[in-house]
């Protein structure tokens, strides 16, 4: 198995990579990371640089073909699964669900209220809704926001919006955080490093799914 970290977890939100590797080690999973890992091409595709993206896809395909690829990032998952051909890809939320079901990872349930943000790429684009919720429910009480699953609202970070229109991205994040706070939850969990980065705020703790398990899944 190759653990494809993705640019954000590899460069900006390195605590996501650390938490993921800790969980994989706890479960006894044999995996490796790429020392020279390159971007999956998602940002290039979403912002219209198709020719450049195709070159990146070709290079990565030569390296990743024939391997099971585990991704931290919802955007990487969507891109490697749908925009590449013939790759075997699984998102960390799906893999964690398998490990919990198989008894390879065990967590202690807490009296803790947690809400969950469906990222666009993992949710609406790839129809992965239940697995992350099941993982959260193994540790805490899941309380849902007003807009969830297919009707979830974007955090504002994707499609180049955060870079080109930072004010709009911030306004969208504020709207989502407001919904999260209204649930009475003590923290907000997301399956996407992009979402975590944009949803970060001073009023509510925001964690990646892996960080949440590492921080709250023990004694």
Provide an overview of this structure.
The chain has 219 residues and is α/β, with parallel strands linked by helices. It has two domains: 2-97, 3-Layer(aba) Sandwich (Rossmann fold), CATH 3.40.50; 106-216, Rossmann fold (3-Layer(aba) Sandwich), CATH 3.40.50.1860. The chain has eleven helices and seven strands. It has helices spanning 7-12, 14-26, 42-46, 50-64, 74-83, 92-101, 130-137, 161-164, 166-182, 193-199, 209-216, and strands at 2-4, 68-71, 88-91, 113-116, 141-142, 187-190, 205-208. The strands form two sheets. Strands 5-4-6-7 form a four-stranded parallel β-sheet, with helices on both faces. Strand 4, helix 7 (130-137) and strand 5 form a beta-alpha-beta unit. Helix 2 (14-26) crosses helix 11 and helix 6 packs across helix 7 (130-137). It starts with a strand and ends with a helix.
Topology (elements, then pairings):
Layout: E1 2-4, H1 7-12, H2 14-26, H3 42-46, H4 50-64, E2 68-71, H5 74-83, E3 88-91, H6 92-101, E4 113-116, H7 130-137, E5 141-142, H8 161-164, H9 166-182, E6 187-190, H10 193-199, E7 205-208, H11 209-216
Parallel strand pairs: 1-2, 2-3, 4-5, 4-6, 6-7
Helix pairs in contact: 2-11, 6-7
- How much of the sequence lies in strands comes to 5-15%
Nearest-integer average pLDDT = 93
CATH architecture of the largest domain: 3-Layer(aba) Sandwich
Which bin fits the share of residues in helices?
A: 40-55%
CATH topology heading of the largest domain: Rossmann fold
- Give the topology string: H per helix, E per strand: EHHHHEHEHEHEHHEHEH
Outline the low-pLDDT stretches: none
- Count of domains: 2
Backbone structural class: alpha/beta
């Amino acid at each position: 198995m190759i653990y494809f970290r993705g640019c954000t977890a590899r460069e900006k939100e390195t605590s996501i990579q650390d938490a993921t590797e800790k969980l994989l080690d706890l479960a006894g999973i044999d995996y490796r990371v790429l020392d020279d890992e390159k971007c999956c091409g998602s940002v290039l595709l979403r912002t219209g640089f198709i020719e450049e993206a195709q070159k990146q896809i070709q290079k990565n395909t030569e390296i990743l073909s024939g391997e099971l690829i585990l991704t931290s990032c919802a955007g990487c998952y969507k891109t490697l699964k749908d925009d590449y051909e013939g790759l075997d890809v699984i998102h960390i939320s799906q893999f964690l669900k398998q490990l919990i079901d198989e008894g390879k990872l065990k967590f202690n349930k807490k009296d803790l209220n947690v809400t969950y943000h469906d990222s666009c790429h993992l949710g609406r684009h790839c129809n992965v809704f239940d697995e992350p919720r099941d993982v959260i429910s193994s540790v805490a009480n899941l309380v849902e926001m007003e807009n969830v699953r297919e009707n979830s609202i974007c955090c504002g970070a994707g499609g180049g919006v955060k870079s080109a229109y930072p004010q709009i991205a911030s306004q969208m994040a504020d709207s989502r955080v407001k919904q999260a706070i209204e649930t009475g939850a003590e923290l907000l969990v997301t399956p996407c490093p992009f979402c975590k980065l944009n949803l970060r705020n001073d009023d509510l703790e925001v964690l990646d799914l892996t960080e949440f398990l590492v921080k709250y899944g023990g004694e």
